[in-house]
Amino acid sequence: xxxxxxxxxxxxxTFQKPCYSAQRSGKQAxxxxxxxxxxxxxxxxxxxxxxxxxKYDHLLLTIIDPNPYLSDGSKTAVATVxxxxxxxxxxxxxxxxxxxxxxxxxxxxxxxxxxxxxxxEGGCTSYEVVTRDLAKIGSHSSSVAVGDVADEIAADLVVxxxxxxxxxxxxxxxxAEFVPCPMLLLP
Length: 187
Prior knowledge:
The chain has 187 residues and is α/β, with parallel strands linked by helices. The protein has helices at residues 47-53, 72-88, 108-121, 134-137, 142-153, 163-166, 172-178, and strands at residues 7-12, 17-23, 32-36, 58-63, 91-98, 128-133, 157-161, 183-186. β5 (91-98), α3 and β6 form a beta-alpha-beta unit. The chain is globular.
């Protein structure tokens, strides 16, 4: 049977591995060539080797949330960072980006206490807090501020809620440009 692009899948009974045959243009069906692959050609990797390759020594938890009691997305990000820190023994830095909240009577200490409580629930007691105020550093630069802090502390992974992107508090394109390490955006 011929499938898409003139390729036919058959089983090579001699070696018990899948082979793909492709017909050369202008040639008869008897003049097929074979490209065979098998799982035996790929060296097996154990789970311990995979975990050893992934190492997060320094995690940056970014909170861009005007809610002092944290939104569901921010709570998910805090819980994820706590879990990763417990698994890898990582150092945690919490970046609080204060937006221009004119008229907001929220106490910033309430937000810190909530973050401390949620990290404590995940088993984390040691972390550093860094604060950036957007009123002082300029508007629409929260993405750049996240990249700068990630670069300053040499973060291995930046974790934040995707609600900040949806609320237009950060620009995802600028995050991709300025953050020097992998990012994990959580719903």
